Amino acid sequence: MIMQYSFIPNISVVLPFYNAEGTLQASIQSIVDQTYQTWELILVDNNSSDGSRRIGERFVSKDKRILLVEEEQQGVVHAMNKGLQVSKGKYIARMDADDIAYPEKLQKQFEYLEANEDVDVVSCKVEFQTRIENAKGFRLFVEWSNSMITSDDINRGMFVELPIVNPSILFRKKLIEDLGMYKDGDFPEDYEMFLRWHKAGVKMIKLPEVLFQWNDSADRLTRTDERYRTNSFFKIKTTYFYEWLKANNPYFPKVVVWGGGKKARQRFRILSKLGVEVEYYIDLKDGHRNGIKCIAYKDLPDPGNIFILSYVASRDSRFQIKSYLNSRAYKEMIDYVLLA
């Protein structure tokens, strides 16, 4: 049964959970403890078989702003969409069952959106916590994500990785009404939604404060689900990037690819199947690599003659490539794009 309120909440916090009895209480409590209190919390039980539901029921019995609903179709997409369907708030906050919102998160994000009508999505910096020894990749991702603050930063980073930690966001519900809910498929549902928003010109920013604790675990979907693997990211990213490239590359369908190695060529192959043509590859030295033409990066023409796609995966190399191209007066998102 869905409870009826005597007030209309400004924020609907949607929290799907599945067998999360070890973390759910702290996650819910972090919402209860917010300095901003005009919210509803929608707990979506996605077929839990442990004590998670009992935890939710205890909170519901104490606070009329907390709802507990069920979603029988398994998966975070279905659970999240169920919460969106019953939400009543002007704004939607995304929340995971193993994360913590710091006390001022909703207050500061709400005040920002109220004061900036041109912005539809506001995030924040996050603190990364993990007990997993080999978590270097996640730590580097969080460092990079926390450096993506402005709307321009986020737009530039959108085709590299998802520059926003999904459960840290607060967004206007009209985005769901205008652009649709989460989609289910062989891709990461959060990245697909952000790419959809990006394509529609949605303005997204990040508060330059740590207001959220993002907790890593061995059973987190980003580690266990095939839809979050690198190839899945590249496939959905390429689908949206192709449309962007058609609209923004003056030499379309011609491009130049930075990275003559096997991995870069494999990743570009997804784009080439859509009809994008490579003129040549850029590498450390000129010549041919496995039958493909390469020119040395120092022999690049002046900007205004080519459009470069960089598929070099190393974070350090990505920074070096960006610095070099900028030193040559190439402009990011105008003359080149980083894609890895």
Number of helices: 12
Q: Name the overall outline.
A: elongated
Gap from first CA to last CA: 46 Å
Question: CATH-wise, what's the superfamily of the largest domain?
Answer: Spore Coat Polysaccharide Biosynthesis Protein SpsA, Chain A
Strand content: 15-25%
Radius of gyration: 22 Å
- Write down the secondary-structure element order: EHEHEHEEHEHHEHHEHHEHEEEEHE
Which structural class fits the helix and strand makeup?
Answer: alpha/beta
CATH architecture of the largest domain: Alpha-Beta Complex
Query: On the 0-100 scale, what is the average pLDDT?
Result: 93
CATH classification class of the largest domain = Alpha Beta
Number of domains: 2
Describe this protein's structure.
- It is a single chain.
- The chain has 340 residues and is α/β, with parallel strands linked by helices.
- Helices cover 37% and strands 22% of the residues.
- The radius of gyration is 22 Å and the shape is elongated.
- The strands form two sheets. An eight-stranded mixed beta sheet has the order 3-2-1-4-7-6-8-5, sandwiched between helices. The protein has a six-stranded mixed beta sheet with strand order 11-12-10-9-13-14, sandwiched between helices.
- The relative contact order is 0.10.
- It contains twelve helices and 14 strands.
- It has two domains: 11-230, Spore Coat Polysaccharide Biosynthesis Protein SpsA, Chain A; 249-338, Rossmann fold.
- Helix 8 packs parallel to helix 10 (230-248).
